[in-house]
Amino acid sequence: MAELIRLAEAARSRDDVVAAGNWYFHAKRRGVQEVMEAISALLPELEQVAAEGNADAKALIGAALLDRGQDLGRAALLFAEAADLGVVEGKRELGFMLTNGIGMARDPERANSLFLSAAESGDGYAAFNLAANYYNGVGVGRNFRQFSRWLQKAAELGIPEACAVLADQMSEKGKEEEALELYVRAAESGHAPAMFAAGTRYRDGVGCEADPVQAVRWFLAMLDRGNGDGIHEAISLVSSMTTEQVIAAGRMAGRESEAQLLLRNA
């Protein structure tokens, strides 16, 4: 997540407000809520760029309005304008509003058309939304083959939620090595439940050799998402680990101070 912020700030420093906004929103989708202040600071410049006809800026302004729950009618209009000009984020977000009836009447069939277009253009979140609608029969008949197709596509594009769902499926089929790989991919993108799943598998040696360092790493990493559910698990492991192992786990998680605290309380 720090790399996403770095990319956003680099774009901001060269006055590329659209690229900066896209990187900030990418970070937000990965769970970094603190970026909303930075996005708010960009809005006046985005408004100026949008007024000059920049469709990507329109989609970003719409996303900011949608996130705040403000002026949803304008958000929908901005997304529609961006979508008409081929901006995949506009298609995806307008589809989201149509699916859920946010700021407009529900139209899940049109939403799926927008998701499909965006997904075919390489938008992973649109692929995941389309998969969910096929699974739940929203705007289309339930179709598990299409659900699996678009879930796989979303996972290939690195969407953490898709990786986690696909990992659950692999685990149910007994393909634990594949499941662990997917959980780790989701965990690396900030998905807290996948961090916990990866931690327990490394602890228990499911799909891998038991590795307490990796286990504690992921249990501690959950704190980045404001989730302390892994702390008890980490405490249980520390008593059987060396000081060097615990410090290594903390370093990998970016939580060295918490690792030191675990050692003091072991």
How do the SSEs run, as a string of H and E? HHHHHHHHHHHHHHHH
Number of domains: 2
Strand content: under 5%
Mean pLDDT: 94
Secondary-structure-based class equals: mainly alpha
Which features characterize this protein?
16 helices, 266 residues, 2 domains, Serine Threonine Protein Phosphatase 5, Tetratricopeptide repeat, mainly alpha, 74% helix
Structure explained in plain terms:
Helix content is 74%, strand content 0%. It has helices at residues 2-13, 17-29, 36-51, 55-68, 72-84, 88-100, 108-120, 124-136, 144-156, 160-172, 176-188, 192-204, 212-221, 231-238, 243-253, 256-265. By secondary structure, it is mainly α. Helix 8 runs antiparallel to helix 9. The protein folds into 2 domains: 2-155, Alpha Horseshoe (Serine Threonine Protein Phosphatase 5, Tetratricopeptide repeat); 190-265, no CATH class. It is built from 16 helices and no strands. The radius of gyration is 21 Å and the shape is globular.
